Amino acid sequence: MSDLPDALATLLGPAGLLTDPADIAPALSDWRGLYRGAALAVLRPASTQQVADCVRICAEAGIAIVPQGGNTSMVGGATPEGNGRSVVLSLARMNRIRDIDAVDMTMTAEAGVVVKAAQDAAAEANCLFPLSFGGEGTAMIGGILSTNAGGNTTVRYGNARELMLGLEVVLPDGQVWNGLRRLRKDNTGYALRHLFVGAEGTLGIITAATLRLFARPRASEVLFCSVADEDAALAVFRRFREADETAIRAFEYMSGLGVDFAVKHIPGVALPLAQRADHYILVDLASTRADADLQGLAEQVLGAAMEAGEVLDAVIGGSEARRAALWRIREEHPEAQRKEGASVKNDVSVPVSKVPELIRRASAACGRLIPGIRPVPFGHMGDGNIHMNLEQPEGMDPAAFLARSHDIMETVNAVVRELDGSFSAEHGIGRLKTDMMESWRGGAELDAMRRIKAALDPTGIMNPGKVLP
């Protein structure tokens, strides 16, 4: 322990080691403000070899390591515990894009590359890196893979796991596994890369990844619609899927209250329809064909949906600025809810066919639990992932409401379980949901996870307190 600071300082230099309390403070709390921890230092390695050397030095000293990217976790997955016997290892300085191949349609990027930077680099090569979500300007490649992030385009392109071909990982003993392969087919034993995606840094530290790229869309369109109810929203999704499944890039549901909050709290956000409604959808269409008539497709589907009473009103973007403004209504939901007051967030998924039932039943159950509670469900109806968020009743003390967080989450999860869903869709487990793992994944599944953890990290130094109860 006495030699640890000197060893790290020699390895990393002044730019790579932060020990002043003011300098390390931003790394000790999560984005939502749910957790605050303590750490001996923040390590900022600039290369894979430096990461490996940091891990080896800490392992020998018995010091835990908390990997951190953009620190945008919604579940406290990158926040250290409060005992002060850990270091935060930031990947922010490892921000190089090592290679882009427009023939293989791959990009090899280091863990500290911000998602938006990866998108921009792909675009410069006339390709598309499709992962997209509200935190893309801060979140980093290592973090989105460690949490298997989802986002808005999962219905078309899949989660982060589906966008990953290979990984470079520093193991808990300091070994470097170079699995940066860009092969579509590679049946050679266990697919080790998939162990680390979604493991939230508990099995090793992702330092680089080879990612799939796609052809850039040459036509796009966005629709914002008010619909009769949750069933109508799902019916419209089915209509678009039957008309042209390949054109759907995103299909998002929003409650009337959620849109009200965005209009109320976010400057520049306005309802683009003549009348308020209780239910809305946003449909994002895209095609790689320059001659794709997406507006014609939209008008065809909307016409039939209006005749059936499913769509009440609709607006088609028509321009890049207008499309961005429509998307902003959806993307500002988390910030608008924060400004409205305290909220309990539930990142859950059910089979797509069960989404309307989830929204209705969970809203009603929470209303019985806390009269006056305000359900604000929104999210990715097209892939079954709804953020079943609950806003405090008007006039209720925020602290008193948040004290009921566990009860609210359990109420929502009871409905999710009955609908064969998952209590964690795209945000992961982190610190927030470890107590749920036993009841949801207990038995053989959780036992296998513990065996894998023990085999790779026998001393338990990698991101302790996360994922496993």
From TrEMBL:
GO-annotated molecular function:
catalytic activity; FAD binding
Q: Which GO terms describe its biological process?
A: respiratory electron transport chain
Keyword RNA-binding part of the UniProt annotation: no
Against Pfam families, the record matches this protein to:
FAD-oxidase_C (PF02913), FAD_binding_4 (PF01565)
List, for all copies, the residue spans of the domain called FAD-binding PCMH-type.
Answer: 35-216
Q: Which family does it belong to?
A: Belongs to the FAD-binding oxidoreductase/transferase type 4 family.
Protein name per the record: FAD/FMN-containing dehydrogenase
Q: Which organism is it from?
A: Neoroseomonas alkaliterrae
